[in-house]
Model the fold of this input.
Amino acid sequence: MSLKGFPRRTLRGERTVYRIHKSARASWWFSSAGDGRFDPVGTGTGACYLAEGALGAWVEVFRRRQLLPEVEIAERSLLAVALKRDLRLADITARRALSVGVTASLGASEQFDESQRFAVQALEAGFDGVRYFVRHDPAQKLYGVALFAQAGIPGPADPQWPAVSGAISDTLVRDAERVFGYRVLPTP
Done:
């Protein structure tokens, strides 16, 4: 499939994106092992998964369980960062993506082979990442972003990837409970 003319979306540098990660680990991780949907496997480049909203980051991390011990929330941090540069994303949420055979299954399938091949093509076509619907939002109103960079953890002083993480707010927890029905169980 050729991605010439593929729909793109510019992630503006002033736009905040979000990622929930374990506090004991780095804020940024660019996966290339094939564990992530849009990992560009075999390229030396990895994908770091973020969301355009904090609730999108939440539902992607806590996707399988609705009952969460409070300690699981306390062990994680929320990265909320504006990258201060525009990034060009292959936008698989655009209806025009169908013209090259892309359907919603690319961002929702349990199998990652096709989406990982797409990620390699997007990388080769010069995209900085992929914009997709957050799979675990049944309403398909939350957007995820897989950004491409050298696989692994960027250096701690790398200005491209500022590490600005903080605690997950009570407001985000309440929003997840209200919107998706999560329950956070207090520590006894």
In short: The two ends are 54 Å apart (CA to CA). The beta strands are 8-11, 16-22, 45-51, 67-69, 76-82, 87-91, 129-133, 143-150, 165-167, 183-185. The CA atoms of residues 44 and 151 lie 6 Å apart. The chain has one domain: 8-185.
